[in-house]
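Input chain follows. Return structure tokens only.
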Amino acid sequence: MPAEPPARLDYRSVPGGNRPRLIGGVLMGVLAGSLLSFVAYWLGTRFICVVPVVVLAVKVFFGTQFRSDERTRGVAIGVLLSIATGALIFFGICTSDMSFH
């Protein structure tokens, strides 16, 4: 008995679904991660130098652990993307505190 041929694939359009929710989650994750970086680095560079390492570890942990869940995937991707923004904020705050006299 011959097997049935597989169903034909439709390449014409991307199926709808969670794309707007994913993009909204990514934007929310980038904004939340960047705000966390700004506040932590602004306060942390004046008190403790360990804060940047802790913030980076929290972002990597959150981003990798919650990336597999469908509901939190966008936010996790956004938090991982905010690591680059956090690095720019960190280096910007460090250079603004330096004296070039």
